[in-house]
Amino acid sequence: MSARMPGPVVPIPAAMKPNPPSKYLAGYPLALVEQVQHLIDQDRLAGVLLRKYPVAHGVRTDKALYEYVSEIKSAYLRNAGPLSKVMFDGKLQIIQHALGMHTNIARVQGAKLQAKREVRVASVFKDMPEAFLRMIAVHELAHFKERDHGKAFYQLCLHMEPAYHQLEFDVRAYLSHLDATGQSLWSIST
Ligand SMILES: [Zn+2]
């Protein structure tokens, strides 16, 4: 049937409408973004992610998170000053490009708070695989030394986690999946 031929307008049911492109993947090459979007639309991204990352991490409390982040810090950023506070933050919103760390950057920028070395991790990371938690911990720790997401920042991330770029992409793909479906893949009921 020719595209020019007028035909009856068939409304697409809401469930069948393709999802709008994910805000979490802005800035990545279009082909990659489309690939993720395609998997989400076909309800296949969940399976891809679960095969790659079958289990959730076991870091359930702020205390356990403190220990987890401390371990990475003492291995790679020993001289960056002591960590004062590490916590899951249910109010921290994940903001499209920045993984929600704008809030944290603003805090870290204040001279007083910079000395305090707080790490806040959005609560959505509580129900994720260990690799994803590691990615966000590395990201936050790198901000202790580099405020902006520049070359030096990413070099520091890669120093702490060689697979950093792939992990950040996979985290963003998962956040896109969450946004589109509301279906959490690693929920642990506690
Ligand atoms: Zn950041």
TrEMBL record:
Coiled coil: none annotated. Residues 125-167 form the YgjP-like metallopeptidase domain. InterPro entries: UTP_pyrophosphatase-like, YgjP-like_metallopeptidase. Transmembrane segments: none annotated. Gene3D superfamilies: Metalloproteases ('zincins'), catalytic domain. This is YgjP-like metallopeptidase domain-containing protein.
